[in-house]
Amino acid sequence: MQTLKDDIKQRILVTAREEFIAHGVKCTSIRTVARKAGVAVGNVYNYFGSKDELFCEVLRPLITALDRYIQSHNSEWHLSLEVFSARRFQDEYILAMKTFVINFRPELRLLLFNAEGSSLAGYKEKIIEHQTKIGTEYLQLMKERYPHLDINISPFFLHIASSTWMSIFSELVEHDEFDEQEIECALEQYAAYSMAGWRELMKVWADEFKYIK
C-alpha cells in the first residue's frame, strides 16, 4: 500500500513539474495536474495542501542543491590564498556553474522567472541575501586564517557583488542559444576579472603566490 501511495505522489510531482515548467504557476491548475496524472483532484490534496505547497515541493530538490552550492563557497577547500591565483579553482568554478545550470535549467527558469503567484516569487533577492551572508562569513574565515588580509569591505559592495553574480547566473539560465565554448569563455573572463578585483580589495600581493604552481 505504501508503495502505491509513493507511486501516486511521484506521478503527481512529475506531472506538476511538467505543467509548471510549461505554463508557470498562475496558469497551472490542480485540476489539470490531477487529470494528467490520472488521479482525482481530491487525491492531489491528500498529498499537497495547496498549489503553492505542490509548487514548493516540485522545486525542493533545486532549492536544496542551490543552497548546498552556495554554502560550498566557504568549504575548507576554498579557504586558501590560492583561490586568487591557482587555475584549478577557476576551472572548478566554471565547471560547477555550467553543471548546475545544465542539470537544473528548466527548474531555474521556473524559480527565477515564472514563480509569480507563489511563495517563491522574488526568490532572486533571497539568493542575493544568502550569497551576501556567505560572502561576509567567508571574509571573516579568511581573516582568521590570514590576519594580514584587508577585509574592510563595504556591506553594500558585497550586496552589489552578489547581485552581479545573480545576474550572470540568470543570464546563463535564460540564454541557451550560446554554445558551450562561448559560455566557458565568458565565465573564464568573468572569473579572471573578479579575482583581480578581489586581490586588489583584500591586498593580496603577487609575491604571496610565487611558490604556487
Please report the number of helical segments: 8
> Approximately how much beta-strand content do the residues carry?
under 5%
Shape: elongated
Number of domains: 2
Which class of secondary structure composition applies to the elements? Answer: mainly alpha
- Head-to-tail CA distance between termini: 59 Å
**Taking Cα atoms only, what radius of gyration do you get, to the nearest Å?**
21 Å
The helix content, as a percent range, equals: over 70%
Count the E strands.
Answer: 0
What name is given to the CATH topology of the largest domain? Tetracycline Repressor, domain 2
Domain HTH tetR-type: 6-66
DNA-binding region: 29-48
Organism: Alloprevotella rava
Pfam families: TetR_N (PF00440)
What does this structure look like?
The protein has 213 residues and is mainly α. The chain folds into two domains: 1-49, Homeodomain-like (Arc Repressor Mutant, subunit A); 59-210, Tetracycline Repressor, domain 2 (Orthogonal Bundle), CATH 1.10.357. The chain contains eight helices and no strands. Helix 5 packs across helix 7 (155-174) and helix 6 (123-145) crosses helix 7 (155-174). The longest helix is centred in the middle third of the chain and has 27 residues, at 87-113. It is elongated and about 65 Å long. The model is unreliable at 209-213 (pLDDT under 50).
